[in-house]
Amino acid sequence: MKYLLFVSLIIFSVIYGCASGKAVKTAQTTILEEMIFFNKFAEQSTWLLGYFNVDRLKREPHSEWFNKEYNDYKFDAEVVEKLLEIPADEITIKIVLGTWCPDSRKQVPRFMRIIDLWRFPISEITFIGVDDVKFSPIGEYEKLDIIRVPTFIFYKKNIEAGRIIENPTTSLEQDIVNILK
């Protein structure tokens, strides 16, 4: 993507350097509009929509933000110890996120760090990607009643036990303990 932006800037420079004043303004406007459209389209093409596996977040183009937040998250070890006391059986989790969303890019990797420390089975987590109007092309998505992302939905014996919506109230690990205890 950086390469395409670089090429676009070179083309812009050639047109700017070779055209007359009036034509340059029109060419600049057109090129800038096309670059904005292209960048938005290119970014949208990387969005993960519908069901996906967490490994997709660990690969380019998402791995840069995922790995940074995952590795940099400073969790509360005492609270994680409490979390380790909670049996993971009969618990399932749905994570609704937007790979375009700054809060998702921050909270989902942190959440996965807590999940890994807890040794919660990844097979019991469902990842659902949404677009920027919070739509996902999966059946019965509307029943999840998603307003903001990320939304972490916890189920005990297939009954919703609670949610963390967008940002935790206290901390991710404490909110998980509060929901599941």
Topology of helices and strands:
Elements: H1 2-18, H2 21-44, E1 50-52, H3 63-72, H4 77-84, E2 91-97, H5 102-118, E3 125-129, E4 151-156, E5 159-165, H6 172-180
Parallel strand pairs: 2-3
Antiparallel strand pairs: 1-3, 2-4, 4-5
Helix pairs in contact: 1-2, 3-5, 4-6
Derived from helix and strand composition plus strand pairing, the structural class reads: alpha+beta
Number of helical segments? 6
Poorly predicted regions are 4-25, 35-42
Going across the biggest sheet, name each strand in turn: 1-3-2-4-5
| Gross CATH architecture of the largest domain | 3-Layer(aba) Sandwich
The overall average pLDDT, rounded, is 84
Give the number of DSSP strands. Answer: 5
Spatial shape: globular
Q: At the third CATH level, what is the topology name of the largest domain?
A: Glutaredoxin
**Separation, N- and C-terminal Cα atoms:** 46 Å
Task: Summarize the biggest pleated sheet.
Answer: 5 strands, mixed
Q: What's the name of the CATH homologous superfamily of the largest domain?
A: Glutaredoxin
CATH class of the largest domain: Alpha Beta
User: How large is the share of residues in beta strands?
Assistant: 15-25%
Computed over alpha carbons, the radius of gyration is 21 Å
Q: How are helices and strands ordered from N to C?
A: HHEHHEHEEEH
Q: Helix share of residues?
A: 40-55%
What is the count of distinct domains?
Answer: 2
State the gist of this model.
With about 180 residues, this protein is of the alpha+beta class. The protein has helices at about 1-20, 20-45, 65-70, 75-85, 100-120, 170-180; strands at about 50, 90-95, 125-130, 150-155, 160-165.
